[in-house]
Amino acid sequence: MDALLDERSLSKLKWRCRRGLLENDLFVQRFFRTHEATLTVRQASGLQALMALADNDLLDLLLWRKQPADLPDEACDTPEVHEVLALMRNARH
Questions:
Q1: CA-to-CA distance for 49 and 65, rounded, in angstroms?
Q2: pLDDT tier at 2, thresholds 50, 70, 90
Q3: What rounded mean pLDDT belongs to the chain?
Q4: pTM for this model (two decimals)
């Protein structure tokens, strides 16, 4: 089992996840509300790869308009990214 993300790393990750597009921020906020207590180091790695994307590419992924394999950045087509993307797409409330 992958280690849980420590509090300091979680705080840094949340800061890194702030986005320019409100739509992306809403997805990110819902994701953290649902998963922050159980976020693993592995998932944090996938989330960091997603946050390296341009806002429009990230939104396209979140809205199912594109898949990670459709992007030119191969770093986004990893199991970690796919896992976190699925969690972000399915976060509710």
A1: 18
A2: confident
A3: 93
A4: 0.90
Domain architecture of the chain: domains with CATH: 7-90 (1.10.150.250)
| First-last CA distance in the chain | 27
> Average pLDDT, stretch 11-40?
94
Six-digit token string for 19: 């986005």
Non-local CB neighbours of 33 within 8 Å, separated by 6+ positions: 91, 93
Radius of gyration of the chain (CA): 12
Task: State whether the Cα torsion 9-11-12-16 is positive or negative.
Answer: positive
**Of residues 33, 7, 9, 21, the one with CA closest to residue 58:** 21
What confidence score (pLDDT) does residue 74 get? Answer: 82
Burial of 65 (0-12, 13-18, 19+ CB in 10 A): exposed
Place of tokens 């972000």: 88
